[in-house]
Amino acid sequence: MLDTATTLQTIEDHPTETGPASWSPRVLVVDDDPDMRRMIVSFLGSNGLHALEAVERQEVERQLARDDLALMVLDLRLGAQSGLDLLRETRARSDIPVIIVTGERRDEVDRVIGLELGADDYVTKPFSLRELLARIRAVLRRQSSHPGLRRVAVRHRFEGWMLDRRLRRLTAPDGAEVHLTKGEFALLCAFLDAPGRPLSRESLLKATHLHEDVFDRSIDVQVLRLRRKLDAGGAAGMIRTERGIGYIFDVAVVRV
């Protein structure tokens, strides 16, 4: 746990420089330590950011569904929950910038895995709140300088189907909602991001490394299961096998 007394002293020694602006980037703080969570939220709010807090996965999902969330600060140690799993799920539905909070400096495993899963930056405990603020501002500046760098389509329409990536909801042409496993959802997202392009089995396998159940099965089984669900909704032939290469999502996709 971060040294709360040290952090409080950091706040007292360094008064805030900017008050809340008329419009402030919305930052979601995910931490299961209520004192630390409130401390971070208060400090960020006093420095021109609109900070929100969350603990439960459902609340994180609800906040991610918003269009105006600018960044998430995620503690990887969330008690019963897995911060790494939450990061995986976040990356499956959103490219919102994420700064992860990891344990002792000597414990680099979670930090490395978090960065490989798509985290934008990290801080290690114990850390000063001013360092966290500086890293948040740096990530937001990069985002502002390159607005297209991490923006992805929220919804995809294809052959009467619609996938809402934020809500992880696939809707068939008849309006029925089709359930997807984590692996199937990641696989469909990979296809929708590259329609008409051959994708190798290796690249698709990497895209579906979101849950332990995909490690024991080949990508061909994952594709077969996704095909069956799409075929059942009247979309036969959407995923075409490219011999010696992999698969092609052979339909037009509209990003909205």
List keywords for this structure.
15 strands, five-stranded antiparallel beta sheet, 256 residues, elongated, single chain, alpha/beta
Concise account of the structure shown:
This protein is α/β, with parallel strands linked by helices and 256 residues long. It is built from nine helices and 15 strands.
Task: Find the count of extended strands (DSSP E, 2+ residues).
Answer: 15
Strand order of the largest sheet: 2-1-3-6-7
Query: Structural class from helices and strands?
Result: alpha/beta
Name the average pLDDT: 79
**Helix coverage percent:** 25-40%
Q: What overall geometry do the principal axes of the alpha carbons give? A: elongated
Fraction in beta strands: 15-25%
Order of helices and strands: HEHEHEEEHEHEHEEEEHEHHEEE
Query: Termini distance?
Result: 42 Å
Largest sheet: 5 strands, parallel
Radius of gyration: 20 Å
Write the layout of secondary structure elements.
Elements: H1 4-13, E1 26-30, H2 34-45, E2 50-54, H3 57-64, E3 69-75, E4 77-78, E5 81-82, H4 83-93, E6 98-102, H5 109-116, E7 121-124, H6 129-145, E8 155-158, E9 161-164, E10 169-171, E11 177-178, H7 182-193, E12 199-200, H8 201-207, H9 219-232, E13 239-242, E14 246-249, E15 254-255
Parallel strand pairs: 1-2, 1-3, 3-6, 6-7
Antiparallel strand pairs: 4-5, 8-9, 8-15, 9-10, 10-11, 12-14, 13-14
